[in-house]
Amino acid sequence: MRKLLYVDDELHNLVTIQALMSKWFQVDIAESPEHALKLMDENSYEVLISDMRMPEMSGLELAKKIFQNFPETIVILLTAYDDKETILEAINLGGIFRFLIKPVDVNDFKQTIDTAFLMFDLKRQKNELLNDLIEKNNSLTDANIEIEKLKNQLYEENVQLKKEVSTSHNFTEIIGKSKILKNSLTLLTKIAKSDSTILITGETGTGKELFANAIHKLSERKNNIFIKVNCAAIPETLIESELFGYEKGAFTGATASRFGKFEMANGGTLFLDEIGELPLLLQSKLLRVLQEKEVERIGSNKPVKIDVRVIAATNRIPEEEVQKGNFRSDLFYRLNVFPLTVPPLRERKEDIPLLINYFIEKLNRKTNKNINTISSADIKHLMEYDWPGNIRELENIIERSHILSSGTKLKVEMSFNYIKNDNNNSSSITTLEENEKQYITRILKYTKWKIRGKNGAAEILNINPSTLDSKIKKLGIDRPL
Question: Torsion angle of alpha carbons 52, 55, 58, 59, nearest 10°?
């Protein structure tokens, strides 16, 4: 994991940036320019990010010292002020990689940092190459050709990064032209512009997260952060601290204060996936946060105001969960301001050929294969299946088939037949929970009850093995003796 140094005189900004970027980078922090210079002497960071306005030394003054002492270091400056004179001075100084106006979009920020590391590598390779040329008295022409090649590579990778950021998890990834899908997307477009809470319902694997991403991208908060929390994947003992954060010393192991997801998502959107898995005690605390628009970290009695739009999702039927006492009715009504249902794949089978082509093209780009055809018999075979695992199951079938296929033609992997033939009561009406139980049981039988590892049930279902363990216990699935 590559390491960078972030400098800011405001502790809140230091902790926030460190928390958001630590998924991809090791982020060391400095509370002042003097502290930053000391850390640079000790570590020689490749990338330095600095706030512009600090009391003892500005970010621009710090940059000048960095250029003098650490000429290879890539410098990115951040400011909350649109100061044209300062920007002009920074441009005239030269050497500054980017000058970003706060607040910055998380995805754009990550892409900028990725490109900064690439630029550092390019500068280092360039310097090493030039030194080698001096020592060996080689031709300068060869060096320029190599440098130009590296520049082109950097440019192509930068373009690809921008393309991936602009297309990842946006509206274009919701594939289909069926009437029922168009109706859902029409409603999505209407409600996205509001700032109200939205409850997305739909079976497992229908694409609820894509719908949540699309809502965020079409909302007024699109330039701010989007954070996802899978409530089913976090142990019950950790979910409260994950959502609301904690203060230093709040419990054993709490060696430093930490922001929760609500505070991290301030100004943006928080997606609570599998909201039905939240314990009742946490449901009441979540209700209070939604009502009061403030959170209290564990170990603190000081509320923190937040501005977060909440999108929740569940694969259960909320009304039934309320009747069973598993879900608070007041929380349900608070979340259900705008209900949105994602249709199951069996109700939009005309979209299956489009989805197949989409997954094939996606896998071709990933693997450099050139599969471009599929037999009409296989398409008919796929369209006759009821897809209890929905789009996720279809994607897994196509991926396995893609791996095993050679040439330009996709051959559907035969284990699909086994699962299909085992579905003897597909026409009967069952509850969502019973349907999920039957489907998971079939997958477990198919994998001979192998849960973890390659070709295990968790991999086929595309869920965390610990989450699958919890579902097996909750649904009462017993392994035969």
Answer: -40
Q: What is the CATH number of the domain that holds 267?
A: 3.40.50.300
pLDDT 10s digits, 365-412: 999 999 999 998 899 989 988 898 899 999 999 998 998 888 899 988
Q: Which of 177-186, 220-229, 452-461 bottoms out in mean pLDDT, i.e. has the lowest?
A: 452-461
Q: 52-66, pLDDT tens digit by residue? A: 888 889 888 999 999
Does an H or E element contain 303, and which? none
Quick check: pTM over 0.90?
no
Give the torsion sign (CA, 241, 242, 243, 246).
positive
Residue with tokens 């209290």: 296
Are 334 and 383 found together in one domain? Answer: no
213 touches 226 (CB < 8 A):
yes
In sequence order, the 6+-apart residues with CB closer than 8 A to the CB of 140 are 133
Nearest CA-CA partner of 165 in 114, 225, 107? 107
Q: Which among 224, 328, 238 is positioned nearest to 281, based on CA atoms? A: 328
Domain CATH code at residue 391: 1.10.8.60
CB proximity list for 381: less than 8 A, separation 6 or greater: 412, 416
* Pair (157, 208) in one structural domain: no
Same domain? For 177 and 150 the reply is no
d(CA 430, CA 452): 28
Q: 365 and 336 in one domain?
A: no
Q: For residues 205 and 480, which has the higher predicted lDDT (pLDDT)?
A: 205
* Spatial separation of the C-alpha atoms in residues 329 and 197, rounded to whole Å: 15
Whether the predicted pLDDT of 323 surpasses 80? yes
Residues 390 and 443 in one domain: yes
Contact by Cβ (8 Å): 215, 198:
yes
Residue 460 in domain: yes
Same domain, 112 and 240: no
Contact 281, 327 (CB under 8 A): no
Q: How far is CA 453 from CA 34, 45, 403, 419, 456, in A?
A: 49, 37, 17, 20, 5
pLDDT digits (tens, 9 = 90+) for 403-458: 888 889 998 865 555 455 444 444 455 666 777 888 888 888 888 888 888 878 88
Same domain, 317 and 216: yes
Do 150 and 23 share a structural domain? yes
